[in-house]
UniProtKB/TrEMBL annotation:
Gene3D superfamilies: GntR ligand-binding domain-like, Winged helix-like DNA-binding domain superfamily/Winged helix DNA-binding domain. The keyword GTP-binding does not apply. It holds the Pfam family FCD. This is Transcriptional regulator, GntR family.
Length: 215
């Protein structure tokens, strides 16, 4: 069976989105069809379709004068996303222990941490693996609506996470702390394991991301 051909519009979409998520096109950067068609080596038609797709996702915004920019990440965005994460992941983590599934989830989470360690040399790939680890935590709810909330915010989570790393969040130290969290989970120690998640990811992660507007 012949492999399904990826349309030029889809190729343009994937490339532009990748550049946005990897911060090659940083928040606030101006974009034009002419620039994108030249960089991608494509005609305007597929690029225009890709732009519409990314506008629908909220990654590209257009002002009154139809100027295009990569969506900014404001302090309000960062505070709201981290508040959402703390509320959902905090309850999920508690539920993992109350349902006595901490040992099971320690292995499931550890699998994601192994991926994070393997990707430590690539900030973007590490952040993708880190996001998968957090989605593993909320999977305890078995709630499709909650999954969709996380999925709809993945692009912002990945971009914010890279800001955290650029502004002080240390990948090797975070990986070691998460390994320690897993060990506490296996021992059934909710307080110590949750304290690591709260301090490292919600505390350092949020505060480092917020530094982006003050540097």
């Amino acid at each position: 069976m012949a492999e399904k051909t990826i349309s030029l519009a889809d190729q343009a979409y994937e490339k532009i989105k990748s550049n946005i998520l990897k911060l090659s096109y940083p928040p606030g950067m101006s974009l034009t069809e002419a620039m994108l068609t030249k960089e991608l080596g494509m005609s305007r038609s597929p690029v225009r379709t890709a732009i519409r797709m990314l506008q629908a996702e909220g990654l590209i915004v257009t002002d009154y004068y139809k100027s295009m920019t990569v969506k900014e990440i404001t302090d309000k965005d960062i505070n709201e996303i981290y508040q959402l994460r703390e509320l959902l992941e905090g309850e999920a983590f508690k539920m993992i222990f109350s349902e006595k599934r901490h040992e099971e989830f320690s292995y499931r989470i550890e699998e994601k941490i192994v991926r994070m360690c393997a990707a430590a040399g690539d900030v973007y790939e590490w952040e993708v693996a880190d996001t998968a680890m957090h989605m593993e935590i909320v999977s305890i709810f078995e709630n499709e609506r909650i999954n969709k909330i996380y999925e709809s915010n993945l692009s912002e989570l990945i971009r914010m996470g890279q800001y955290s790393i650029k502004n002080g969040m240390h990948i090797p130290k975070t990986n070691e702390n998460l390994k320690k969290m897993v060990r506490y989970m296996r021992k059934g120690d909710y307080e110590r394991s949750f304290e690591i998640l709260k301090a490292d990811h919600f505390g350092i992660g949020k505060n480092s991301a917020l530094k982006k507007n003050s540097v």
